[in-house]
Design a protein that fits this description.
single chain, about 400 residues, alpha+beta, D-Maltodextrin-Binding Protein, domain 2, 2 domains, 6-stranded mixed sheet, 3-stranded antiparallel sheet, 16 helices
């Protein structure tokens, strides 16, 4: 029996060799693996395409990069559950990840020993439920602009800023302290100076979207101060982006809270300005703005997700490649040594305002906060509600809509 089995195995082996030798061999080479990357703005597009060619030469994997509207990126990653209708990777602002994490459409990112090369605040921005969900690329925050002709040295405290404003107004040189281009986002450094937070935190340090703190004393006290400035005529009660900028550009207001996106118009206007950190309630304790981070997310359902992780953390996460992206975009880099390397005086001013900046909340409940708090601020300014009552209503609205 053993002899028979041995003969059968030998026959099968011979047959296999014959069939293999008779099978025509393909003369074509298999197509290389390809990754797809979606980006929603064009600033880094040229640099990314150049880096994609470098990645293909080094790793043998092509990267196809497409411009896709941010709303479409969000929709595709959610509706298709991160599947075939989504890219392998995408660049998005960090505060968009909440619903994606809840629906498991993006993959946890492991930076390994490279984590220390990134600003801690940029990592915190993509941190949720105890895990990291994106690789930071760049950061941005607003800064405190002041008219250098009217004010040679910026105030360290809001009390000092008010004293300067009241003196300049008595002299007939200005009309207002400032005007706000919009509600919560531009006002947040004042709320932060009072110690306000929008949400509480879980034991792991990540935000707890169900613990809404909008009606806490710190929030109320900050809104009371701002409302009193409106009633005293030092801040206009309306919110209009262009009007707020014109007041600063014309010298009718010595201060404004603004971001890098306003630099071109301020330079064209000729207003003498500088950018620095925000005043606080005490010297040496500045208020902090919101902090936005753009970074790479990875499609959790992609069959190429490990290759996508390699592209992000093994290739892009090199100082020379992060610098190439920074040079193309000019947003401050999330890579620590590039961020600390400075830049022009405006970049240095924004950086001075940024070290203690608060990452924009990335929990899904934040989507309800903007309108609720905006309404509360408007009601308080109009005098139809007290700051405390208006913020309590905002808290209730966020909690109700979140359930």
């Amino acid at each position: 029996m053993k002899k028979f089995l041995k003969v059968m195995c030998l026959c099968l082996l011979v047959l296999s060799v014959v069939l293999t030798s008779c099978t025509p061999r393909s003369t074509t080479t298999a197509a290389p693996e390809r990754l797809t990357l979606w980006v929603y703005d064009e600033h880094r597009l040229g640099a990314l395409n150049a880096l994609a060619r470098q990645f293909e030469a080094e790793f043998g994997v092509a990267v196809d990069i497409s411009m896709v509207d941010l709303q479409q990126i969000r929709t595709q990653f959610l509706l298709s559950a991160g599947g075939a209708d989504s890219a392998d990777l995408a660049i998005i602002p960090h505060d968009n990840i909440g619903p994606m994490v809840e629906n498991s459409t993006i993959m946890e990112v492991n930076l390994g020993n490279k984590a220390g090369n990134f600003l801690q605040s940029s990592i915190d921005a993509f941190f949720m439920d105890g895990k990291l969900w994106g690789m930071p690329l760049s950061v941005e925050n607003i800064g405190f602009f002041y008219n250098t002709q009217l004010i040679p040295n910026p105030p360290e405290t809001w009390q000092e800023a008010l004293a300067i404003t009241e003196r300049l107004k008595r002299e007939g040189r200005i009309d207002y302290l400032m005007a706000f281009p919009d509600h919560l986002y531009y006002m947040y450094p004042i709320f932060d100076a009072f110690g306000a937070s929008i949400f509480g935190r879980k034991p792991d340090g990540s935000l707890d979207g169900r613990n809404v703190l909008l009606a806490e004393p710190a929030f109320v006290q900050a809104l009371e101060m701002i409302t009193n400035l409106v009633r005293s005529g030092l801040i206009p009660p309306n919110f209009d982006y262009d009007e707020a900028c014109v007041l600063f550009e014309s010298g009718r207001a010595p201060f404004i809270h603004q971001g890098p996106w306003a630099l071109d118009r301020f330079r064209v206007s000729g207003v003498p300005y500088a950018v620095t950190k925000f005043p606080g309630l005490e010297p040496g304790k500045p208020g902090s703005p919101f902090f936005g981070v753009q970074g790479l997310i990875i499609n959790n359902s992609s069959p190429r997700r490990l290759l996508a992780q390699t592209f992000a953390t093994e290739f892009l996460a090199r100082e020379e490649n992060m610098r190439a992206l920074h040079n193309a975009d000019q947003r401050p880099s999330a890579w620590r040594t590039i961020f600390e390397g400075g830049g022009d005086k405006d970049a240095q001013g924004f950086n001075a305002a940024g070290p203690t900046a608060v990452p924009m909340p990335n929990v899904p409940q934040m989507g309800y906060v903007w309108e609720a708090v905006g309404n509360a601020i408007s009601l308080s300014f109009a005098g139809t509600s007290t700051p405390a009552a208006a913020l309590q209503t905002a808290k209730t609205q966020v909690e109700t809509m979140s359930n």
